[in-house]
Amino acid sequence: MAVDSCNGAGSIGAPRLLEALGVELIPLNVTPDGLFPRGAEPVPENLGALCAAVREHGCDVGFAQDMDADRLAIVSEHGEAIGEEYTLVLAARYALGHARGPVVANLSTTSALDAVAAGFACPVYRSKIGEANVTAEMVRHHAVIGGEGNGGVIYPQINFARDSLVGMALVLHLLTETRRTISELMAELPRSYMLKQKMVCRSDRIRAVLHLVRKEYAQWPMDLRDGVKVTMPDGWFLVRGSNTEPIIRLVAEAQDEERARRMIDDVRSRVATCLEA
User: Fold this and answer.
1) 195 beta partners
2) Over the stretch 240-277, which tens digit does the pLDDT of each residue have?
3) What domains can be seen in the chain, in order of their start residue?
4) What's the pTM value of the predicted model, to 2 decimals?
5) What is the pLDDT of residues 23-39, one digit of tens each?
6) Which DSSP symbol is given to 190?
7) What is the dihedral sign for C-alpha 91, 93, 97, 103?
């Protein structure tokens, strides 16, 4: 297998863990010198070198960490990044197979997690976005596993923090136990497509934007704990203000790319009208 630690905090720990687990390792960017060779986020567009290494060396899987090693993304045996949303989904499949119980994830995490949990007759509880919010709900519900769809896995048997090393171990155990490839495991999940976008928005305009979204989509069920999450029969979207930047974030998930794009384009156009007013 291959691992790309981005010359960050996981550069020493990740190779040591993986070698201790008995894998034949192809290491990339494991010099912890702070000279980051790619974008910070472990999203598909930043994982070209890892995808190429997986194909070149015939690896079973590739792992990509972010700089502080709390997020993990996965590359399939075909050298294709599956999207950081599915790290928690695969980790949960393994964890629930060994100890059934509640799962916690934030409001923007893929609904594929709900499908996996349902297969084990386990509930999923949603929290506001942010590691602290997720862990608080995990403690409250005595969760078996939890995390965020950005590649953050929280496994209470080890610690109450997003931990890419824990994510790697859980996914490797899943591959070994099921004797399936990443692609085969992904094929068993319900099909969905997620889009994430952002729009520049002054902090003093966020309240008006959220009010507009509530008004424009009032016929659909909503979750107002963290921005506005609207659930429709064939998908959902979330609009929320950033806590750290003068932007609003838009996330949409649907059964196919076309529907997800229509959904996010529709809400984006309505928000743009509000911002221009």
Assistant:
1) 252
2) 998 888 999 999 999 999 999 999 999 999 999 888 76
3) 2-75 (3.40.120.10), 85-187 (3.40.120.10), 193-276 (3.30.310.50)
4) 0.94
5) 999 999 999 998 999 98
6) P
7) positive
